[in-house]
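Notes to self after the Tuesday call (sharing in case useful).
The group wants a holo model before anyone commits to mutagenesis around the pocket. I volunteered. Ligand is nicotinamide-adenine-dinucleotide. Logging inputs and output together so the record is complete.
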Amino acid sequence: MNMNFNEVLKMKEKAELKTQAFINGEYTDAIDKKTFDNISPIDGKLIARIASCSEKDAEKAVKSARQAFNKGIWSQMLPEQRKSIMYNFASLIENHLFELALMETIDMGKPISDALGEIKRCAKGIRWFAEASDKVYGKVAMTRSNVSAQIIKEPYGVVAAIIPWNYPLMMAVWKFAPALATGNSVILKPAEQSPLSLIRLADLALSAGIPAGIFQVLPGYGETVGKALACHLGVDKIAFTGSTEVGKLILQYSGLSNMKAVSLECGGKCANIVFADAQNLDHVAQQAAGAIFYNSGQVCDAPTRLLIEKPIYNEFIEKVKHYSQDYAPLNPLNPSSKMGSMVSEEQMSNVLEYISIGLAEGAKLVMGGKQVNEDTGGFYIEPTIFADVKNNMRIAQEEIFGPVLSILKFETLAEAIEIANDSIYGLCTFAWTSDLNKAREISKNVRCGKILINSTSDGEWSVPHGGFKQSGFGRDKSLESMDQYVQTKLIWTEY
Ligand code: NAD
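Result:
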């Protein structure tokens, strides 16, 4: 889509924003009429006041979701009809591409060109799961001859999905597309920092033909409506993406309520291991910079710990610094912006605090380190690089979730593996080498859910995403994610 900055600004002025909850097929205020302020991190200004849902709204939405599920209007719809409605939904998203992208940009400060690309991928993902919906089915087990043993898959019923702010629509699609494809009713709880695109999406779902009660959106705070859903006896499954800290609470809520099924996509602190034998170090450095500064570093599987082999340590740092210059923060509504703002003032303060911690711990600041563009009223931080980091420093152990890269030196393959594994997280590890043996050793010995060799992007819908250790459990994307929204039932019949 070709556009210039002024055109984007004009479209922003004209944007019509929906701010209410979407329950049982219609937009509605929160029952107790509360709202919360939605602030744009681009300029620190109020965008809108959004319905702040509570336990009462959760109650109403769960009731509607259960009724719709029990009636079978979606769960027992002919698979090809369900598929065709999901196709309509994907097309409507494409028809409203710019509107949805604009909402994500003003809500959380990601560059408009990135938001457009991500929302296009969301539409593709919905089609991918729609297509899979009638291609995943049960089995008949081998048994004695007077028995028929069918192993079938049934949808859970009511699925609540709790979504973070870093990719508001994409993280929601990862959950609701497989949940809908398998016949569930879905209730989405967007992050309070970024509710606009999901609220708008609800209307598109209804227009596409998804029946009332099957797709609902409850904006509000995590500790109120998020907790109410996670504790609700009528919710069968919680699909959560967010911090490890809140992920642990979700497990407790499940245990204290109805033992609802839980899947968790939580934090990460991913190692990016660069061996001296990697081909084309310029390409590798460009990828390393791009992957840490994309989305202002607010990415769960960002390669935040860059491990460089000793012989190329200084040379490679210079290359990464060079490519990092491309990410000077700009207004994210400007189509040429490659890095926008942080999501909020709070997140900016957290990240600045980590930069002070890194300095106090004795890491060497080789680039950035400051808040910038303060005259805009928004929340921007320069691409920041620390070198000579030790893996026991807090900036190497804790998830910063910002544009801060920690660089470490290693001498042997075994040491690189040890450093990669020395983390409470286990989401993803990247390695760059032209030696297949090294690639194999890393793949075999690093404990995490994804290993990317000579790549920073696993963007296909056909592959699973998810973590080991405190990065969570369960998988998004791919056919594996569909398993998370169905239960296995055995039907044993003797003749
Ligand atoms: P967060 O945990 O603060 O919030 C995530 C969601 O949980 C929000 O909707 C929030 O309102 C809700 N929430 C907060 N407290 C709650 C509670 N007590 N009960 C129920 N819900 C509650 O995370 P965030 O700051 O929005 O997102 C950043 C985090 O998400 C990072 O840790 C990042 O690594 C993680 N993340 C992980 C993945 C992945 O696939 N592993 C993807 C994206 C983001």
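Two things stood out.
DSSP finds 16 helices and 24 strands in the chain.
The longest helix spans residues 112-132.
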